[in-house]
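Sample 1 of the test manifest.
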Amino acid sequence: MDALAAILVRDLRVALRVGGGALVGVLFFLAVVTLIPFALGPDLALLRRIGPAILWLGALLASLLALDRLFADDQADGSLDILLTGSVPLELVVGTKAVAHWLATGLPLVIVSPLLGLMLNLDARSIAFTALTLAVGTPALTFIGLIGAALAVAIRRGGLLLPILILPPAIPVLIFGVAAANTDVVGAVPFGTPFTILCALTLFSIVIGPFAAAATLRHGLE
Amino acid sequence: MSLIDLANPTRFLKLAARLLPWFVAATLVAFACGLVLTMLAPDDYQQGATVKIMFIHVPNAWLSMLVWALMSVAALGTLVWRHPLADVAGKCAAPLGAAFTFLALVTGSLWGRPMWGTYWVWDARLTSVLVLFLMYLGVIALWRTVEDPSRAARAAAILTLVGAINLPIIKFSVDWWNTLHQPTSVFRVGGPSIDSSILVPLLVMAIAFALLFITLHIAAMRNEILRRRVRTLRLLAAQAAQVADTRAGARA
């Protein structure tokens, strides 16, 4: 337990220091959301209708951007080998690293999403729904991305490949996240239905992700 | 002859050489029968002759899923049993599966043009097949990124298994997504409940395409084994040349 806590603190510290890149994701999120009105035109009614979808897409892309960091630096400086040979089960180590990664890159996205929602002319309920779905959904993106990050490290030169491998499994999260966030705008189904499925997807990916990532690292780096 | 006997690539090559002509012949016969039966099959009263696209489209769609299932078994073979030919089987199945998926998409959209009035609709089924196609391309890209086959094999195997777990979820969520955003604008032509005059040619064509897959797969596995041998020989030759070089350098 102490070891896992130490890994969590270390990863957070590394991510927040110079060169850690924790806030790059937020900047990217901001840039994507800023670009979209330029492409669509500043039509407030349209932006209000597609706002939740824009926020979700931006968050998805921003979380992809940071995934590369999960294992690449650890492999470069050799600490990944120490983790691999250590006595703590690799599944737990990898899961802890994912939690730290989410705290450093996923949580900031959730926190700034209400601000960006205001810029997209969303009303209070929509903003709350979007922030809530992002809070529940981004961990799923991180834990699915964990598998991709492990693959990218195991095969080297995988950085470019990562988004291609990760996007198909992320589709269900996007579908249910946007469906739940949109319920206030579209109103076809109650909020709870897609939201509970989104929760289920997150729990599912938290179970699958660490095992698949640990297996990849073990097989890939031996 | 059990599966473990095939672990020896030479034995596999021998068996492949013996089996391949028979499979080629069987494929040709099955396609000949299937195409004749397709010609003889009656036109649909609503769709006219375009219904015959189905005889190509449906077997391809079936195979697109079947091949991923086969790749998943091969992935288990790589990770669990460490069967030496499992990764060869998995690697060679991926491009074939991608090709079948692509054909299913293309024939489907060609069929959709006269029937639905558009080449592409974001219908649940089409979308999930498109995602399957993307996943095939991902696996192929992974194989092409790593030059060491055994390294790539394990990464691709894990990716294949994760994909196999994810496919039902994607299918389910795409169904949900479609029912949410698209009410009945996509009218699916309710064809006649399948009559034997259509079912028989369809099944024959399905068998023909399955045989085609087996034939191509065996041939591709044979080629892959030979390719790896060439690669090993080249590496050995390069190593020998290097050793000779350093010796010559030391003497000079």
